[in-house]
Amino acid sequence: MNFSEILKFSIDLLAVFLLALGIKGLSKVRSAREANRLAAIAMTLAAVGVFVESLGEAGIPFNSWLWILVGSILGTFLGAVVAKRVAMTSMPETVALFNGCGGMSSLLVALAVAIFPLSSSDGSLKIDLVEKISIVISVFVGSITFTGSIVAMAKLQGWLPTPAWMQSKVRHFINIGLGVVSLVSISSLLSGSDSGLLLLVISSALLGVGVTLPIGGADMPVVISLLNSYSGVAAAAAGFVVGSQLLIVAGAMVGAAGLILTQVMCNGMNRSLVSVLFGGALGSTDSTGLSASGEYLNITSCSVEECALTLEAAERVVIVPGYGLAVAQAQHTLREVTRALEGNGVDVTYAIHPVAGRMPGHMNVLLAEADVPYEQLKEMDVANPDFPATDVVLVLGANDVVNPQAKNDPSSPLYGMPVLDVQEARTVFVIKRGMSAGYSGIKNDLFDLSNTSMVFGDAKKILGELLVELKELGISGKN
Amino acid sequence: MSFLSEAFWVLLLGSLLGLELIGKVPPTLHTPLMSGANAISGITMIAALTLIIKAGDNLPLLVMGSVSLGFALFNVVGGFLVTDRMLAMFSRKPTRK
Fold first, then answer.
1. How does DSSP classify residue A161?
2. How far apart are CA A353 and CA A370, in angstroms?
3. How many CB atoms lie within 10 A of CB A83?
4. CA B41, B45, B50, B51 torsion: positive or negative?
């Protein structure tokens, strides 16, 4: 080993160590921000390692510098712009977009090596079997990750509706067909023919679309997390292709950690990974039967004014924010309302269901953006015992996570899902656009209870009106 | 064969490490963690860099490598910045628990 090799080796070891520390630290609130920086430093080190090694060997030709510069300036600039500009509410689709590009990168590397074999150490241009397998894996997983993530992004943005036939059983046959085509092209590639390459790219890209397209909006975060895990796998495979152990470790770590995170998310939603991937939208198979039995009998609707009067008289108010609040981007208006209430001496807390928002933990990010103090955010286990002593609960765009069926009705598809026991409170106001069912397509028994009143309208608009009403009652958050 | 056998050990141990690193994650951090892990998966930029450096005068290879590097860095830079933006919101207040 000469000096530059030793240097490169040490840099790689340090980078892997820091990466592991980074991932570990990201799972604790206190250390998360430093951990993220640590991981960024590790990535920079990893890049430095490549330069050190190449400079020690044959040097880097001018042409290479040029293309490195072009690629890195463009990538860095666009990445920074997107990261700075994007709204916090569209975080899920942003992560999906970034992830898809990571998959694309692995795909391109593998394709490039497949088309133009790198000369190996003994000078031959022959690709051995292991290298071929890695290329195939990288191409396969890379394309699925890319198209899957882009479809996930488009669906979350609302650019892409799900065609009706994708909801039916037909999609399973189509996806199995695409899987078979991929396998055939893989085996032809491994047996020495190059003609299967294009076919593999196309069939696996279509497979990514076919698998992701039928999945419902609320399940999408799980899919993105899974695709994130895939892009780790693709990176590890690319590591085999170019012979980089650093890449293999990092890819394997992200792949495995992504899998665990996916599992954790599934647990929070009381869904199995299999049902997310193959079940389509929850209840889509027999939702007609459910909604037929789901007639509402005792709906009380009330005006914003009544709601304001009740809030004015309350001492303890709990806010239950949900997906609807995130979609309406009403978190800032909500914060103004709660400021006004706090100014009036009302004790306000927020009960956060683990999957509130558009992805797990997303609601915490949104409320933090609106300046809600961290201490006011209560996790479900902490919030639930306090509901009986609560005067008013405001449910904002949440539905399934406050459905008492999950506790009371063993025949309900929701049965067993952890929910917030808002019905225990004295009065519950549900601010909702209409009587449509939640994501599960199931009737919400909460709406029928005598202590529940519905306030119909867009969350942001209603909260704005509520603020005006509160001001007329002499409550404003000026202090 | 030595690189290969080493590589498989690395793959195995790396996967085991990844499984162990994330044990109990508070739901608050699911989104930032996912986004941070996503940034790390852009590590393929190493492969893209290697490719460009070894490409010599092969123009198509240089271009493919460069595009690949661009995609990877888009993922890495964007991912880390966006994660930092999210986490900055949490750390502004004194945090407990």
1. P
2. 18
3. 22
4. positive
CA distance A232 to A141: 10
Mark residue A296 as left, alpha or beta (left: phi above 0; alpha: psi -120 to 50; beta: remaining).
Answer: beta
- Cβ <8 Å between B36 and A39: yes
Neighbouring C-alpha atoms within 13 Å toward the C-beta of B51: 36
Q: What is the pLDDT of residue A57?
A: 76
Q: How far is A466 from chain B (nearest CA, A)?
A: 27
Indicate if A400 belongs to the active site: yes
Residues of B in contact with A245 (CB under 8 A): 6-7, 10
Record: contact A109-B68, CB cut-off 8 A? yes
Q: Is B9 on the interface with A (CB under 8 A)?
A: no
Residues in B closer than 8 angstroms to A91, CB to CB, are 31, 35, 82, 86
Query: pTM to 2 decimals?
Result: 0.80
Q: Which two tokens stand for residue A37?
A: 């920086």
Listed residue (A72, A19, A59) closest to A43, CA to CA:
A19
Of A228, A233, A241, A438, whose CA–CA distance to A322 is shortest? Answer: A438
Instruction: Name the residue among A342, A400, A404 with its Cα closest to residue A371.
Output: A342
Q: What 3-state class would DSSP assign to A318? A: strand
Please give the structure tokens belonging to residue A131.
Answer: 């290298």
Most confident listed range (A84-93, A291-300, A407-416): A84-93
In tens, the pLDDT along A102-150 reads 999 999 999 998 888 765 544 444 567 788 888 899 999 999 999 999 9
Nearest to B53 by CA among A138, A124, A110, A58: A58
B72 alpha-carbon distance from chain centroid? 9
Whole-number average pLDDT of chain A:
83
Q: Which residue has the tokens 């919400």?
A: A444
CB A215 within 8 A of CB A277: yes
Longest dimension (CA), chain B: 57
Residue in A119, A260, A365 nearest the CB of B86:
A365
Q: Please give the C-alpha separations between residue A46 and each of A7, A51, A158, B26, B79, in angstroms, as whole numbers.
A: 12, 9, 37, 29, 17
